[in-house]
User: Which sequence fits this backbone?
């Protein structure tokens, strides 16, 4: 299947700092990427939909000024958690959709905010 | 409100048996249906997808879709301990809309 690469896989940061997570579709162009967050033993919760060349669409309750999403090219989307706090600690997963509609996930990024 | 419902489990089956995982969805306009497997601490991986009513087979996996009853199921034949994971059902309305995920069913295959 298609490959989606996410980096970093694990990051630990101090409270108040910002963290950037990258999501790349390696062998296909993804006009749309999705960012999910998953807390322990919970399902994936969609945070935002990222469209190449336009502003991201955020789900209700997700602060767009806190979770900055940039989809600069057809193969790269980034999520920046600004001024991270311990409650932002979670497993962040990106996904990219192929032209056939299949959705493939990155490996996920586990963020721990101290 | 779009909802995807799954029994959280755990569903325990002996090695070699058939595991049956079920999922119901609320939006009758849903068009595409996906099954993902997620191991603890890992990202979901796509097992298979189905668009049309009926069965779709891929190796040991069979997806079954019944749009009239609004349910989709996943059968795993000859279950192996390595199949032990959480299985996520996901539904999409179509176009460029995002997937809506169920909370997942935890499967445990006992050797």
Assistant:
């Amino acid at each position: 299947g298609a490959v989606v690469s996410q980096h970093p896989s694990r990051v630990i940061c101090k409270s108040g700092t910002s963290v950037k997570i990258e999501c790349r579709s390696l062998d296909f162009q993804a006009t749309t990427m999705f960012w999910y967050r998953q807390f322990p033993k919970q399902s994936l919760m969609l945070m935002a939909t990222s469209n190449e060349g336009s502003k991201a669409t955020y789900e209700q309750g997700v602060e767009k000024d806190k979770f900055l999403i940039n989809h600069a090219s057809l193969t790269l989307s980034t999520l920046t958690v600004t001024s991270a706090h311990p409650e932002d600690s979670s497993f962040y997963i990106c996904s990219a959709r192929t032209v056939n509609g299949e959705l493939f996930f990155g490996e996920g990024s586990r963020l721990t905010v101290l | 409100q779009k909802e995807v419902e799954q029994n959280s489990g755990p569903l325990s089956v002996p090695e070699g048996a058939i595991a049956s995982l079920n999922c119901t969805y609320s939006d009758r306009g849903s068009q595409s249906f996906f099954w993902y497997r997620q191991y603890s601490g890992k990202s979901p991986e796509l097992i298979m997808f189905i668009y049309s009513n009926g069965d779709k087979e891929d190796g040991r996996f069979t997806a079954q879709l019944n749009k009239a009853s609004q349910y989709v199921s996943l059968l795993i034949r000859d279950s192996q301990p390595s199949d032990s994971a959480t299985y996520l059902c996901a539904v999409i309305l179509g176009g460029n809309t995002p997937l809506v995920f169920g909370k997942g069913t935890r499967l445990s295959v006992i050797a």
In short: Chain A is about 0% helix and 55% strand.
